[in-house]
Write a structure and sequence with these properties.
mainly alpha; Leucine-rich repeat, LRR (right-handed beta-alpha superhelix); 25 helices; leucine-rich repeat; LRR_dom_sf; repeat
C-alpha cells in the first residue's frame, strides 16, 4: 500500500525547518496544497561566533560584522535621512518666508509634533523587541499579529494626542512662548493633524519590515517620497506661494504616501508567513502589549523631549525669535547627522535582538562593539566637515544675517554634540530595545537628563547668563554622563545570562510559547474547516446523499481481491458487506468523509494494511482488536479523541500513525499488547503523558511525539533499548526535563527536544554512545553551554562525560574525607576503594554510588 510519509520523517533540523515541514505536511494531509515559503535573512548567524582572543580574531570578526551591519545600515541610513528630510526641508522653506515663520514651524515640530512623535515612535518601538526576537527565534507567524496590535494601540493614542494639536496655541502661550510664535505655531499644528495618524500606521509598519530585514523596500519608498516632497514643496512655495498651509499640505501628503506604499507592500503577500491577513487575535493580550509599548515610549520620549526642551528653553531668552530660529537650524543639522547613526542603530537593533533570539550572546555583544566604533568614526567625520565650513553653510538655511551669526557661534557645540549623539543612541535606544532593557534605560535617562542635565543647563543659561550656549552645554553634559553609565552597564552585563533570562522579562508575557502552540491549533482548525466546506460543496452537486455508492458496492462485492483503493471518493458511509472480503490484505480509505467504520471490519481476518487517514473519524470500533494480522495502521488526520483499548490486541502491528488528531491519552495497556510495534507516530495531538506500559515496547525503533503537551517521560523509558529515533520537540513550556534513564537508550541515533523548556541535560547523557543527531534549539539550556551544543552530539557527549567524571571524583574525595573522620586513615582508604567498585558496578546510573532512590517527578505528575 502506498503511504504518505510526510509525518514519519524525524524533524531533527532547525526550528524553522520543523515549522515549515510540519505546515507543509498538514496541508498535504488536508488536500489543500502547500505554499512555498522561504525566509532568507542575514540577520542572525547560524551559530554563535567563537571567542575573540587576539587582534587577528577581532579583525576577522569585525570585517564580517561590519558587512552585515552596513548591508542593513546602508538602506536604513538612506531611509532615516529621507524621512527626516521631509520635516527639515519644510523648515528650510519656512526659513525663507520669515524668521517668525521659521520659529513657529520649529516650535510646532519640536514641541507639539516632537511630543507626539516621541510617544508614537516609542510605543511603535515595542515591535523591535517583539518582532526582532520572534523572527530570530523562528516564530514568524506572530509578526503579523503584533503589527495589528500595534496599529490598534497607536491609532487610539493618535486620537488622544490630536487634542494637543487642536489646543496648541493656548498650550504654548501657557508655557511661556511669545504671543506671535504661539499663534502661528498653533495654526500650523492644526494643519498637521493628519500627520499623527500617519505616524500611527507608519511606525509599526516600519518596525515590522525592519525586523525581517526588508530595509531596501523601506529605502525605495522613502526615496520616492523625498523626491515628491521636494518637488511639491518647491512648487507650492515658489510658484503658488501658498505659505504655511502649503507646507503643511505637502508634508502630510508625503507622510501618507509612505504609509500607503508600506501597507500595500505588506498586503501584497511578499512578507510570506509574517502577514496572513487580519485577525481578531490583534485584540488579545492588549494590556501586556501596552505595558511593553509604554516602556519603550517612556525610554525614547525621555531622549526626544530632552532636545525638545532645549528649543523650548531658547524661547524664554531675550530675542526669542532669533534664538529659536538659530537653534532650530542646528537641530536640523544635528538631526541629519544623527540619521547616519540612526541607520547603524536600526541595524544593530535587528542584529542584537535576532542574535539573542537565536541564543548567540557573543555575536550580540560583538555587534554592539562594531556599531559603536562605526558610529563614532562617522560622527567625527561629519563634525570635521561642519567646523571646516562653519562660515558657509548657514546661508543655505536662513536670510537673516543675525541668525546666521548665532549659528556660526553654535557650530563648535554642534560638532561636539554630533560626536556624542552618534554613540549615545546605540547604547540606549537601539541596544536597549533589542535586548529588552527599556525600563532600566528609562531610569538612567531620567536621572542623567532631568535630574542633572536640565538643572545644570538652566543654571548656565539663565543664572550665569551664557544664553543658548550655556543651556546646550549643560544638557550635553547630561547626555555625556548617560553615555558613561550605559557603557559601564554593557561592559558589566553577562550576555549569556541575558540570553537565558530574556524569557523571564516582559517579552515572555507577550511572546509566550503557548501562543505559538495555540496558533498551530487554530491553523489546523481553519484548514480543516476549509476542507470540509470544499467537500460539502462538492457533495451537494452529487446525487445519493449518504447512500453508499453503487460503484463502491460493486468493488466490495467483487470477492477474492487482496487490495482495494477507495481513496479520494468523498465516501461518507461504508456498507456492512465490507467485512465479507475475507481475502483482503490491503485497504486504502484515505481522504474521504467517513465519520465511522462498520463493526464488520473485524471480518477482514487477513488484513495487513489499513489506511483511513484524512477522514472525519471520531472513534474506531471496538472490534478492531480482531484484526490479528494487521501490521500497518494509519488513522492520522481525523478527529479521534481516544484509541480503543481493544487495539492492544492487534499484536502483529508494526507501524501505527495516529498523528494529527485530538488524542488526550493513549490506551493504558498499549505497550503490553503491541510488543512488535516498531514505529509509533503520535505527533500533533494533545497528549500530556505516556502510559507506563509504553516502556515495554522493546521492538520500538521510532517514536515521534512532537507538538503535544508532554510533561515528562516515564522513569522506565530506558527499557526501549531498540529505539533509534526520538522526537519530543515543540512540547513548549510543558517539557522541562529528561530522566536520567534516557541514557539507557543504547541504540538511540537521533534525538530532537527542541522548542521546550529544558535547562539541564541528565548527568549520564554521555552514555548515549550511538547518538548522531541532536537538536536542542530553543531551550533555556544552562548545561551544557551553547558552545558545546553548537558542536553537535559528539561535543555535548564529551562535555557531559567530563562533567560526570568530575562529579564522581568529587564524590570519591568526599567519601575518603568522611571515612577518615569516622574510622581513621586505613579504613578511610578502604572505603574509597569500595566507592570506586560500587561506581563501576552501578554503571554510572547513580551519582557517586548514592543509594537513595530517585524521585519520579513524572509519576508525581500522573498522580
Amino acid at each position: 500500500m502506498e503511504k504518505d510519509n510526510s509525518f514519519m520523517d524525524p524533524f531533527l533540523t532547525s526550528t524553522e525547518e520543523l515549522d515549515q515541514a510540519t505546515q507543509k505536511a498538514l496541508m498535504n494531509y488536508l488536500g489543500v496544497g502547500s505554499r512555498a515559503s522561504s525566509l532568507v535573512s542575514f540577520s542572525s548567524t547560524a551559530v554563535d561566533i567563537p571567542p575573540i582572543s587576539n587582534v587577528k580574531d577581532f579583525t576577522r570578526e569585525f570585517r564580517i560584522e561590519s558587512r552585515k551591519l552596513w548591508k542593513l545600515a546602508g538602506p536604513a541610513i538612506f531611509t532615516s535621512m529621507a524621512q527626516f528630510s521631509l520635516g527639515a526641508i519644510t523648515q528650510v522653506f519656512a526659513g525663507h518666508i520669515s524668521t517668525i515663520a521659521l520659529a513657529a514651524v520649529s516650535i510646532e515640530n519640536s514641541v507639539i509634533a516632537g511630543f507626539s512623535f516621541g510617544i508614537m515612535l516609542g510605543m511603535g518601538s515595542a515591535l523591535e523587541t517583539l518582532c526582532g526576537q520572534a523572527f530570530g527565534a523562528g516564530k514568524v507567524s506572530l509578526l503579523g499579529v503584533y503589527l495589528q496590535r500595534s496599529w490598534v494601540i497607536l491609532t487610539v493614542t493618535a486620537i488622544i494626542l490630536s487634542l494637543l494639536y487642536i489646543f496648541a496655541a493656548p498650550i504654548l502661550t501657557f508655557i511661556g512662548q511669545t504671543a506671535a510664535i504661539s499663534a502661528m505655531a498653533g495654526i500650523f499644528s492644526i494643519y498637521m493633524i493628519p500627520q499623527i495618524f500617519a505616524y500611527a500606521i507608519n511606525f509599526p509598519s516600519a518596525k515590522f519590515l525592519q525586523s525581517q530585514s526588508k530595509i531596501m523596500v523601506m529605502a525605495a519608498i522613502s526615496g520616492v517620497a523625498l523626491v515628491i516632497h521636494t518637488l511639491l514643496t518647491w512648487l507650492v512655495m515658489s510658484k503658488f506661494h501658498w505659505g504655511l498651509p502649503g507646507l503643511a499640505f505637502v508634508l502630510n501628503t508625503s507622510w501618507w504616501f509612505i504609509v500607503v506604499a508600506q501597507v500595500v507592500y505588506i498586503f501584497s503577500g511578499t512578507c510570506g508567513e509574517a502577514w496572513s491577513g487580519f485577525t481578531w487575535e490583534a485584540f488579545h493580550n492588549l494590556w501586556g502589549f501596552i505595558k511593553l509599548s509604554l516602556a519603550s515610549a517612556v525610554m525614547l520620549c525621555l531622549e526626544i523631549w530632552y532636545f525638545m526642551a532645549l528649543v523650548l528653553f531658547a524661547g524664554y531668552l531675550k530675542n526669542a525669535e532669533v534664538s529659536v530660529a538659530a537653534l532650530s537650524i542646528c537641530m536640523n543639522i544635528l538631526g541629519w547627522a544623527a540619521m547616519v547613526s540612526v541607520g547603524i542603530n536600526a541595524a544593530v537593533s535587528v542584529r542584537v535582538s535576532n542574535e539573542l533570539g537565536a541564543s548567540h550572546p557573543r555575536a550580540a555583544k560583538f555587534s554592539l562593539v562594531v556599531a559603536v566604533i562605526l558610529s563614532s568614526v562617522m560622527g567625527m567625520a561629519i563634525a570635521a566637515v561642519l567646523l571646516i565650513f562653519r562660515d558657509e553653510y548657514p546661508v543655505l538655511f536662513v536670510e537673516d544675517e543675525v541668525v546666521r551669526n548665532v549659528v556660526r557661534e553654535l557650530t563648535p557645540m554642534l560638532a561636539f554634540c554630533i560626536v556624542i549623539n552618534n554613540v549615545q543612541p546605540v547604547l540606549s535606544g537601539r541596544v536597549a530595545v533589542g535586548a529588552g532593557w527599556q525600563a532600566v534605560v528609562a531610569y538612567v535617562n531620567i536621572a542623567c537628563y532631568y535630574l542633572f542635565g536640565v538643572p545644570f543647563g538652566l543654571l548656565l543659561g539663565f543664572k550665569l547668563e551664557y544664553g543658548v550656549m550655556g543651556i546646550w552645554w549643560g544638557m550635553m553634559t547630561g547626555t555625556f554622563v548617560q553615555s558613561i553609565v550605559l557603557t559601564w552597564m554593557i561592559c558589566k552585563t553577562n550576555w549569556d545570562k541575558e540570553d537565558a533570562a530574556k524569557e523571564e522579562q516582559i517579552y515572555v508575557t507577550v511572546v509566550k510559547l503557548e501562543e505559538v502552540h495555540e496558533g498551530y491549533e487554530k491553523q489546523l482548525r481553519d484548514l480543516e474547516e476549509k476542507l470540509s466546506e470544499v467537500y460539502d460543496s462538492a457533495v451537494e452537486s452529487l446525487d445519493g446523499g449518504d447512500e453508499v455508492n453503487e460503484e463502491v458496492l460493486e468493488i466490495l462485492n467483487g470477492g477474492g481481491v487482496e487490495r482495494i483503493d477507495l481513496s479520494d471518493r468523498r465516501l461518507k458511509l461504508l456498507p456492512e458487506a465490507l467485512g465479507n472480503n475475507v481475502s483482503l490484505v490491503s485497504l486504502n480509505l484515505s481522504r474521504n468523509d467517513l465519520k465511522l467504520l462498520p463493526d464488520t471490519i473485524s471480518g477482514l481476518e487477513k488484513l495487513e494494511e489499513l489506511d483511513v487517514s484524512s477522514n472525519l473519524l471520531e472513534s474506531l470500533p471496538d472490534s478492531f482488536g480482531l484484526l490479528l494480522n494487521l501490521r500497518v495502521l494509519n488513522v492520522s488526520g481525523n478527529k479521534l479523541t481516544y484509541l480503543p483499548e481493544s487495539i492492544t490486541q492487534c499484536r502483529s502491528l508494526v507501524e501505527l500513525d495516529a498523528s494529527f488528531n485530538n488524542l488526550a491519552s493513549l490506551p493504558a495497556n498499549i505497550g503490553y499488547g503491541l510488543l512488535n510495534l516498531e514505529r509509533l507516530s503520535i505527533h500533533l495531538n494533545k497528549l500530556r503523558f505516556f502510559p507506563n506500559s509504553i516502556c515495554e515496547m522493546r521492538s520500538l525503533r521510532y517514536l515521534d511525539a512532537h507538538m503535544n503537551e508532554i510533561h515528562g517521560l516515564p522513569i522506565a523509558i530506558g527499557r526501549l533499548t531498540s529505539l533509534e529515533v526520538l522526537n519530543l520537540s515543540s512540547n513548549f513550556s510543558d517539557l522541562t526535563e529528561l530522566p536520567d534513564t534516557i541514557s539507557d537508550l543504547a541504540n538511540l541515533k537521533e534525538l530532537d527536544v527542541s522548542n521546550n523548556q529544558i535547562r539541564v541535560l541528565p548527568d549520564s547523557f554521555f552514555r548515549l554512545e550511538k547518538l548522531e543527531k541532536l537538536n536542542l534549539d530553543q531551550n533555556p539550556l544552562e548545561f551544557p553551554p551553547q558552545e558545546m551544543v553548537n558542536q553537535g552530539a559528539e561535543g555535548v557527549r564529551e562535555y557531559m562525560r567530563k562533567r560526570w567524571e568530575e562529579m564522581v571524583e568529587e564524590e570519591q574525595m568526599r567519601s575518603v574525607i568522611e571515612a577518615e573522620k569516622q574510622q581513621g586513615g586505613v579504613t578511610g582508604w578502604l572505603s574509597w576503594g569500595s566507592s570506586i567498585v560500587s561506581n563501576l558496578l552501578s554503571g554510572g546510573t547513580q551519582s557517586g554510588g548514592a543509594n537513595k532512590p530517585k524521585e519520579d517527578s513524572y509519576m508525581d505528575q500522573l498522580l
